[in-house]
Amino acid sequence: MNDRAGRGSIVLVHGGFVDGSGWQDVYDILKADGRNVAVVQHPTFSLEGDVAATHQVIEAVPGPVTLVGHSYGGAVITEAGTHEKVKALVYIAAFAPDKGESVNTLIADPPPGAPVPPILPPVDGFLFLDRDKFPESFAGDLPRARAEFMADSQVPWGVDALGGTISQPAWRAKPSWYLIAQDDRMIPPPAQHAMAERIGARTVEVPGSHSVYLSQPAATADLIRQAAAG
């Protein structure tokens, strides 16, 4: 355990519509390396609340911390990553906003011809994806049964989370890595390329849907290892 703690920690942050259990395969690979790994179970109600939940986990684990975010989790790590224990940021098919930007800002002007995520109109301040369209849009390379389970176990995503703006983007001060999912139908690959380039990330590109961390856990874990190694 002392050796594991001495290597620091990896903290995994999930995105919208899902919870932290999706990190299981990536977690297992990294734990098999003898690494200290923690998963944040943030409620995705507001960016401020999700950053606070992430800080809680960061403070509870040995540093230095490699902070990893998928999708909306990229906005969370951009804000939470300014924490002094965080040494590196890893974006997995994720949003990477700049100061004053939010997820809403980044999705306002999609590339021409990009697929439109099947987000239903908000109800009581929360969003869901159309359950029938969820598998194709969010998890097109997963077994149909698993994608349908994800559709039926969606976590409501608060509109306040999408509107939360970044105060100080961590990627301006800390090294970052980015995994681009080539077949993503939620965040268009050209948008991922543009964000990765803007933040100066070391970038890899793999075949995969928006659920690339589920379908390509080895590639995901490998990029996290690179970031943890510095």
What do these coordinates show?
The chain is an alpha/beta fold and 230 residues long. It has a single domain (2-229), classed as Alpha/Beta hydrolase fold, catalytic domain (Rossmann fold), CATH 3.40.50. It has helices at 2-6, 24-32, 47-60, 73-80, 103-107, 134-138, 144-152, 159-163, 189-198, 212-215, 217-229; strands spanning 9-13, 36-40, 65-70, 86-92, 126-127, 157-158, 176-181, 202-206. α2 (24-32) links the parallel β1 (9-13) and β2. Keywords: Hydrolase. GO terms for molecular function: hydrolase activity. It holds the Pfam family Abhydrolase_6.
CATH topology: Rossmann fold
Widest β-sheet, arrangement of strands: 2-1-3-4-7-8
Helical percentage: 25-40%
* Rounded mean pLDDT score: 96
Give me the oligomer status. single chain
- Considering the protein shown, what is the CATH homologous superfamily? Alpha/Beta hydrolase fold, catalytic domain
**Any idea of the CATH class?**
Alpha Beta
Number of strands: 8
- Along the chain, the helix and strand elements come as HEHEHEHEHEHHEHEHEHH
**Could you give a short account of the major beta sheet?**
6 strands, parallel
Radius of gyration: 16 Å
Number of helices: 11
Structural class call reads alpha/beta
GO molecular function: hydrolase activity
Protein name: Alpha/beta fold hydrolase
Pfam family, one: Abhydrolase_6
Keywords: Hydrolase
